[in-house]
Amino acid sequence: CFLYLAHFPEDSKIYTCDLFNYWAAEGIYYGSTIQDSGEDYLQELVRRNLVIAEKKNLGWRLEYCQMHDMMREVCLSKAKEENFLQIIKVPTSTSSINAQSPSRSRRLTIRSGKAFHILGHKNNKKVRSLIVLGLEEDFWIQSASVFQNLPLLRVLDLTEVKFKGGKLPSSIGGLIHLRFLSLDDAGVSHLPSSMRNLKLLLYLNLRVAIEEPVHVPNVLKEMLELRYLFLPLLMHDKTKLELGDLVNLEELWGFSTQHSSVTDLLRMTKLRSLSVSLSERCTFETLSSSLRQLRNLETLYLVF
């Protein structure tokens, strides 16, 4: 848990929702919910004075954590010693690119889009985690085969990454071991039907940056392990998503009664957080009847 903090840039706020799901995707969690498990691990790091954690407003849950500069140096040093993580920064020459080519590390974090072609290196076949963080320039993915070199990925965070033509490559469907996939603020307007193969996902963030309606195929119903789901704020009018079988969801953001049946919520009894956009055909009374079984619900947002 401590070494995973080496992914993050200096002085950055490390939001617990992302961190806990990174850990879970790596198999570091126990018990009934990812949130409770992550809270326990983080509290232990705080108790040992390895990190500083802040609570969300007056709530009891921790919102983010940070590392003291000295402790971050210890974390980076230990991560390097253990070959736990490789940080790929802006290459200044061909020689530096070769020097940064991954060797034994199973985890990569990219700080520059200019270094992304390093992923074509033949020694990347065993990489389990790829996180894009702290970009200072636009990061474009042009190749449709980009994911074919990363068959064992468990964690893929493509926050703010842009895709040619707004299309997420269908090759992503080959990443059958994925537990975590984030397209938060990414340049994506079309999701491929091949995503139905990502049956082991625990966390899926589709809160993309595109202002136009997003094409979302009806494939989420097959991701039965999902715990966290963030849907696009704007989807095509004809989009129909069947979500009723996602009974393990702990958080569901962006649920729309225009694109899904409100009765899909009946079986999601593990939900703790939910945001719902109500269409004209669904009244508040109809929604209320579908929420009556959600005894664990802590947060509810309604958009009319």
Automatic annotation (TrEMBL):
<dbReference type="InterPro" id="IPR032675">
    <property type="entry name" value="LRR_dom_sf"/>
</dbReference>
<feature type="domain" description="Disease resistance protein winged helix">
    <location>
        <begin position="8"/>
        <end position="74"/>
    </location>
</feature>
<dbReference type="GO" id="GO:0098542">
    <property type="term" value="P:defense response to other organism"/>
</dbReference>
<dbReference type="InterPro" id="IPR044974">
    <property type="entry name" value="Disease_R_plants"/>
</dbReference>
<keyword id="KW-0611">Plant defense</keyword>
<dbReference type="Pfam" id="PF23598">
    <property type="entry name" value="LRR_14"/>
</dbReference>
<feature type="domain" description="Disease resistance R13L4/SHOC-2-like LRR">
    <location>
        <begin position="126"/>
        <end position="302"/>
    </location>
</feature>
<dbReference type="InterPro" id="IPR058922">
    <property type="entry name" value="WHD_DRP"/>
</dbReference>
<protein>
    <submittedName>
        <fullName>Resistance candidate RPP8-like protein</fullName>
    </submittedName>
</protein>
<keyword id="KW-0677">Repeat</keyword>
<dbReference type="Pfam" id="PF23559">
    <property type="entry name" value="WHD_DRP"/>
</dbReference>
<dbReference type="InterPro" id="IPR055414">
    <property type="entry name" value="LRR_R13L4/SHOC2-like"/>
</dbReference>
<dbReference type="InterPro" id="IPR036388">
    <property type="entry name" value="WH-like_DNA-bd_sf"/>
</dbReference>
